[in-house]
Prior knowledge:
The chain has 489 residues and is mostly helical. The chain is built from 22 helices and nine strands. Helix 11 runs antiparallel to helix 12 (279-302), helix 16 packs across helix 20 and helix 17 packs across helix 18. It is globular, with a radius of gyration of 23 Å. The protein starts with a strand and ends in a 5-residue tail after the last helix.
Amino acid sequence: xxxxxADQLGPHFDDGGDVLLIEAQAVLARRPYHWAKAHLIxxxxxxxxxxxxxxxxxxxxxxxxxxxxxxxxSGESLxxxxxxSWGSRALVQELGLKILPSRGFVSSEEFFxxxxxxxxxGSLKLENYYRHWRDASxxxxxxxxxxxxxxxxxxxxxxxxxxxxxxxxxxxxWKPVEDEIDxxxxxxxxxWSREGxxxxxxxxxxxxxxxxxxxxxxxxxxxxxxxxxxxxxxxDASLTGDDVMAHSMLSIPLNLGLLHPQxxxxxxxxxxxxxKAPLGSVEAIVRQIAGWRDWVWHLYWHLGEDYVQKSNxxxxxxxxxxxxxxxxxxxxxxxxxxxxxxSVGDTGYAHxxxxxxxxxxxxxxxxxxxxxxxxxxxxxxxxxxxxxMPANVIGMSQHADGGLVAxxxxxxxxxYINSMSDFCSGCPFNPKVRLGENACPFTAGYWAFLHRVEPxxxxxxxxxxPLAGMRKLADIDAVIEQEAHRTSW
Length: 489
């Protein structure tokens, strides 16, 4: 009997035969979950059981062990595709289940191990791995050369949003039609929350993301047809009236196992081959999936089980503010932070630049505890998983590993946000001002951050110019004092 976990719900995890699906309430109870995330997971599990019919044994229990141990002890033979977290792998090993090789990625753990062998920690960069995969796979390659003569079109894919536009003018993204399974899940979550059995973040709302294989395929087709064309140029841009922009939101069905990443890559490359999508956009989505997604998956295992807890290179220990847990934006004056926090509260989603350069940048500047922030990203986002977030949050966003994942801290002042979004329009803070009542907390915070971490990063050649600029500021002491006592943001 194959035990399918909640991130193994697509056909590539099912080899035929009997299937076991377990709905374990303790999984939802051990940490806060966003409403949308809890609803999506249970909806996907229950929909998969309905699809499988008599092939599936669907069991509700407090803990996985409550189901697995009696089955094992009764003589039932159980198999499982290698799980995606340290804790889950330890569980299946302890219980003696037959463990099959990992699935759901475009490169194997052996492929990564071969590549990483003999490399120094500082050389494990995304671009190096991505190019190695492209060479080995032949995707977007013309013989031994990359299509178009470049492996990476990231430099060209940094266009600001159209001036004066409220949105990109694209069709609304695909969304599902809820059914009785969704209604029952919502009823159950409401009941468990009222009883105090689980803690839910954000707000209840309609299901926005694919929970079945057919829905996932529809979402993929919709993206390729309506958004892929514009994905590359505007992948780093934000608009108040367009929280999706040209992003695919396919990380959600991918992380449920409803789509295989190779079929997403194939669909996008096919659009390029047919002249329906530009190379820059297709390369960008291939890099996000085969590059970034596979890379952080492999790093999760390579960096070790204690990576999150041991990584605090910049000595950041501040607790997350209540506004992060409220997720309503009501008590936040900075327009960009207010908007993104509210959007996450409503949907459990924000695209990558809002995560990195708004939420992550803010947290980096203020010295929030990186391990706590990592947990918050897992809890608050529908695609947040234990394997996805460490390299993203600890490594890239917070530079807490000292440069194993990213070559420099990803921080900026308000000028970057102003150039790549419309958030600064109508904001009470001025991105050009670093001192005074209307001083932008990102702009002032950037300089205060550099001053705080300067002893740690002065040897980083990529930070030499910003640090030189910080040392020349005549008002740096006043900026530091202001930010140390800032109460309005």
